[in-house]
Task: inverse folding
């Protein structure tokens, strides 16, 4: 059996930071999501090595421990989007849902279903929140018309993001990069352990990290 995954992402949209910015992410899937929108927070420090690939058992076990509480749709979406490098689970908060297609009897999306939503992270230089539309599909086979449908859904999601009252405009997406051997910082506001010691803003709540 051959598993094939595909993912697409839009440009990043800069958002003015505010107390409600993160809470408004699920609203960006309005009119597109076919299931409830599920929020997936950045991975805690102890799960930074997590990977959905069973060929690396230790990383796969970390991934299971980190994501076992999520719904089948969200877990499937994470596998697809992480496998296609469409999202970075160390730094990004995701709002995920089934966007097209059907679920099987166990609640997982069929191979031609499309999953995704929006991914956000905090810009280390400005403190703005950067939001991207992301979609993914695949599994035991790929249909040619799925990619065309995914492109249309991606455009709809991006339109929703740009329609936000906090949107500033399109911009490049520069994901934070961890420094080698970093131990990470703990956010004094929400208690989240950052992925690296150079973080200015907490990946989870967006508040500025405090240094002693």
Result:
């Amino acid at each position: 059996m051959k598993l094939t995954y595909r993912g697409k992402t839009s440009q990043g949209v800069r958002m003015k930071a505010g107390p409600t910015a993160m809470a408004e992410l699920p609203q960006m899937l309005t009119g597109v999501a076919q299931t409830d929108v599920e929020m997936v927070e950045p991975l805690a420090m102890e799960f930074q090595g997590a990977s959905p690939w069973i060929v690396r058992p230790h990383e796969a076990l970390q991934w299971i421990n980190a994501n076992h509480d999520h719904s089948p749709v969200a877990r499937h979406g994470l596998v697809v989007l992480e496998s296609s490098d469409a999202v970075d689970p160390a730094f990004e908060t995701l709002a995920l849902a089934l966007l097209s297609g059907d679920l099987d009897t166990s609640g997982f999306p069929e191979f031609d279903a499309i999953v995704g939503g929006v991914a956000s992270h905090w810009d280390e230089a400005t403190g703005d929140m950067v939001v991207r539309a992301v979609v993914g599909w695949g599994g035991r086979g790929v249909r040619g018309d799925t990619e065309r449908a995914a492109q249309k859904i991606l455009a709809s999601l991006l339109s929703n993001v740009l329609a936000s009252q906090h949107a500033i405009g399109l911009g490049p997406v520069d994901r934070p990069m961890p420094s080698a051997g970093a131990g990470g910082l703990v956010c004094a506001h929400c208690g989240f352990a950052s992925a690296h010691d150079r973080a200015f803003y907490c990946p989870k709540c967006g508040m500025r990290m405090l240094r002693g």
